[in-house]
Amino acid sequence: MVSxxxxxxxxxxxxxxxxVNAANSSLLxxxxxxxxxxxxxxxxxxAACRALRASHYGKGLRTGQAVATTAGRLPARWVIHTVGPVxxxxxxxSDLLASCYRESLRVADELGAExxxxxxxxxxxxxxxxxxxxxxxxxxxRSTSTEVREVRLVVFxxxxxxxxxxxxxxx
Length: 171
Ligand code: AR6
Prior knowledge:
Strand order of the largest sheet: 1-6-5-2-4-3
Helix content: 25-40%
CATH superfamily: Leucine Aminopeptidase, subunit E, domain 1
Structural class: alpha/beta
EC number: 3.1.1.106
CATH architecture: 3-Layer(aba) Sandwich
Oligomer: single chain
Bound molecules: ligand AR6
CATH topology: Leucine Aminopeptidase, subunit E, domain 1
Enzyme class: hydrolase
Largest sheet: 6 strands, mixed
Keywords: Hydrolase
CATH class: Alpha Beta
Domain Macro: 1-171
Protein name: O-acetyl-ADP-ribose deacetylase
């Protein structure tokens, strides 16, 4: 069974097989985790993303889907880019957020990645409430069948860390 661990820190500093990027459908970069990954990983990642746009992903990557590239200069082998849903108070998009975790693990299995670091997808610029985002992350990872040995949830700030910690021990 997959071991779910929690780390407070920067996702770009994780020595793992694959790092998950909270990307957008253009795959061409942005702020938050996406900006940090491209900044630290270097131009090789953007070049690989451009190549994806020029081939199978002409219209971009759909929300809830995932695709892998090189990790460039990051201490990882691959970046798995996934597009979280933007939070909506009127429409339940939880399935799309769960799909990000499931699809990223499916891609990790295809790659043979044994250790995978995830950020709290959609809980930054996309506005998803952190407690609900944490619940969906933990429930989905725990209920997905995968060959991945360790899923490392990497959260940046103190408040988010506390919320993840409570949910990991409480559920
Ligand atoms: N390491 C770990 N966690 C981080 C880091 C980091 N270096 N930086 C931010 N976080 P976000 P989203 C936390 O905004 O909400 C981009 O422009 C952050 O506090 O990165 O899915 C993309 O291109 C938050 O809890 O992703 C998209 O357009 C969580 O990571 C859009 O933002 C996710 O925040 C995606 O928004």
